[in-house]
Amino acid sequence: MIKSLLKNGYLLVLMTALISGFSIFLNKFGVTMTNPYLFAGLKNVVVGVFLLGFILLYDKKVIVSLQKKQWLLLILIGLIGGAIPFLLFFKGLSITLAVKAGLLHKSIFILIAAFSYFFYRTRLPKIVIIGLLGLLAGNVIYLNVRAISFNWGDLLVLEAVIFWAIEIIFAKKLLIELPARVVAGGRMIFGSIFIWIFLLLTNQASLVLNMTLAQFSWVGITAVLLFGYVITFYSGLKYITAVEATSIVALGAPITGLLSLLWFGQAITFSSWLGLVLIGFSILLICSWDFKVIKKWILQQNK
């Protein structure tokens, strides 16, 4: 049972990585066509509505039995995971390159490892630390990152990643008690509410009236990808650790880079292949860690 759940967790997060790789590449086109804050707000509200439908259909009893503390955590996750970082990320993405944004976003596993120790005193074995460093190096080599100037857009993306890392730590704890759909729904539903409050307060909500069919089409396409990302990631995160999950999602950065290379008609170099091999090997090292804590609560849930 445990091995099956862990395997499903890995597969779900691997799907997240594939979705993420395409998503950041396509979001770059969508976000440059409209107001980035409005773009984030529209996408999130579409995903939030779909998740609300699933929750009302499958998890109504869970919602009724939620405790005050759980409601507060869901609202907090909505603020720090579904609102603030989306506003920061899409504003940053409208300024910087998709490849750079992808690398910064997929480096979240470093912050997750640090926050896991800070919040829960989780000590990582040496083999996992080596894997994390190898994963970061593999992404840098694959994407051929050199001494590139760090612009304002990169800083906004980095700030978003910090918020998402903190959110994942809280979400992981809440996933022990609640279904993945409910936690994901809390993130996107409350996040959408906060974003639209921001849009109303800054007089940007009315800009939706001036949007074209093409702009709405980009919102629709990227909203589908975001829905897939949220569902697969939270479902996988329920059964594997946050470090494992975010490390596997790091595979999305090479996918974004590959799409960028193909779009601009550039050849895939030897260093890119070398980086890809290093990424794969590093993820295997990270996932080889024996997570006793995870196994313990999985056993408890299946008694």
UniProtKB/TrEMBL annotation:
The chain crosses the membrane at residues 9-26, 38-59, 71-90, 102-120, 127-145, 151-170, 182-201, 213-234, 246-264, 270-291. One of its GO terms (cellular component) is plasma membrane. It holds the Pfam family EamA. It is a multi-pass membrane protein. Keywords: Cell membrane, Membrane, Transmembrane, Transmembrane helix. InterPro entries: AA-Vitamin_Transporters, EamA_dom, EmrE-like. Coiled coil: none annotated. Residues 8-141, 152-286 form the EamA domain. It comes from the Bacteria. It is found in: Cell membrane. The keyword 4Fe-4S does not apply. PANTHER family: INNER MEMBRANE TRANSPORTER, S-ADENOSYLMETHIONINE_S-ADENOSYLHOMOCYSTEINE TRANSPORTER. This is EamA domain-containing protein.
